[in-house]
């Protein structure tokens, strides 16, 4: 039985209330018997010598609320015990699978040759890519670096939230680079804020860069197909060090995310709306009764915010904005 009464139970209870708080056997149809039994079991109807009487639902609210809170406490305690319970299994897993688990098997004929490395371990199935990345996040001990160009699916961010927060709470650092158009989405902003509240660092880079994930500076993940259905897992130290250096270069040029999360001035918003409708800079100035120089200054702010290279590119970036 669920915690809340169903539609039929609600209807029968309300019928009892409308009847003065009482139900008599003759008021019930044969089909009402299961519903009646459910209401009695919930304590919303109490048997009497002549039928049933309605009980105050507030008492049930208190009882059910107490039971739910108690259940929540038990679940939280269970969650806290899980690391200790599964700790021995995790340590055995770590011992059996060394950090170079992503590397492909080396040809026995070349084993032991100094400087020999195998090709990247390419995973072709998108679900398997997600599983492998999830494992790497769970096993990370120090740091995750993430360069994430292009849009970020909200559902993917939500699904990864619990794992990202767990990563941060166990003392790992998480640094992510996004593009301006990505952080312009309010739903993405809320996801960023949840992670930032636990210590994640986010910057915004208004220029093209490549997608990469790096775990503990030991394993890097890069796309192996344009649609991101395939990924390459790299463990060669030289290759990983090169990708880390690329990330650090982009990180140094990127701006703190707060600059992009602050809402722009109202005039800038109005100019953005007009640009998104296809108006030229001169037409916007005429419409708003301001100088073209003023419009140009606002456009410059918008271009910085969205990483737009040209006015046409800016209008294209703004096309999906809500203009309520």
Would you kindly provide a brief summary of this structure?
With 324 residues, this protein is an alpha+beta fold.
Describe this structure in words.
- The two termini are 44 Å apart.
- The model is unreliable at 99-119 (pLDDT under 50).
- Helices cover 52% and strands 13% of the residues.
- The chain folds into three domains: 7-55, no CATH class; 121-260, Endonuclease Chain A (Endonuclease, Chain A), CATH 3.30.870.10; 263-318, Arc Repressor Mutant, subunit A, CATH 1.10.10.10.
- Helix 1 (7-18) crosses helix 2, helix 5 (154-169) packs parallel to helix 7 (186-196) and helix 12 crosses helix 13 (311-318).
- It is of the alpha+beta class and 324 residues long.
- The strands form two sheets. An eight-stranded mixed sheet has the order 4-10-9-8-5-6-7-11, with helices on both faces. A three-stranded antiparallel sheet has the order 1-3-2.
- The chain has helices spanning 7-18, 33-42, 57-96, 126-139, 154-169, 180-183, 186-196, 237-253, 258-261, 266-276, 281-288, 292-306, 311-318; strands at residues 22-23, 45-47, 52-54, 121-123, 143-148, 173-178, 201-204, 212-215, 219-223, 231-234, 255-256.
């Amino acid at each position: 039985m669920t915690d809340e009464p169903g539609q039929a139970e609600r209807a029968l209870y309300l019928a009892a209330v409308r009847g003065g708080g009482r139900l008599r056997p003759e008021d019930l149809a044969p089909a009402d018997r299961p519903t009646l039994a459910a209401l009695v079991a919930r304590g919303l109807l109490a048997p009497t010598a002549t039928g049933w009487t309605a009980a105050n639902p507030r008492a049930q609210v208190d009882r059910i609320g107490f039971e739910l809170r108690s259940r929540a406490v038990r679940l939280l305690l269970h969650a806290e015990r899980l690391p200790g319970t599964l700790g021995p299994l995790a340590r055995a897993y770590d011992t059996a699978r060394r950090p170079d688990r992503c590397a492909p098997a080396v040809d026995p004929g070349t084993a032991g040759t100094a400087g020999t490395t195998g090709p990247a371990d390419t995973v072709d199935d998108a679900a398997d890519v997600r599983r492998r990345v999830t494992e790497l996040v769970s096993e990370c001990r120090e740091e995750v670096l993430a360069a994430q160009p292009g849009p970020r699916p909200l559902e993917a961010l939500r699904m990864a939230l619990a794992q990202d927060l767990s990563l941060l709470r166990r003392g790992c650092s998480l640094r992510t680079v996004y593009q301006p158009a990505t952080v312009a989405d309010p739903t993405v902003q809320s996801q960023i804020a949840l992670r930032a509240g636990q210590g994640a660092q986010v910057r915004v880079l208004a220029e093209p860069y490549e997608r990469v994930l790096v775990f503990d500076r030991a394993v890097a993940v890069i796309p192996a197909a344009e649609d991101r259905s395939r990924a390459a897992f790299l463990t060669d130290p030289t290759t990983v060090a090169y990708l880390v250096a690329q990330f650090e270069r982009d990180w140094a040029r990127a701006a703190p995310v707060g600059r992009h999360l602050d809402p722009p001035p109202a005039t800038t918003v109005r100019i953005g709306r007009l640009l998104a409708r296809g108006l030229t800079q001169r037409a916007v100035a005429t419409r708003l009764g301001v100088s073209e120089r003023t419009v140009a200054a606002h456009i410059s702010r918008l271009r910085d915010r969205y990483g737009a290279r040209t006015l046409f590119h800016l209008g294209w970036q703004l096309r999906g904005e809500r203009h309520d």
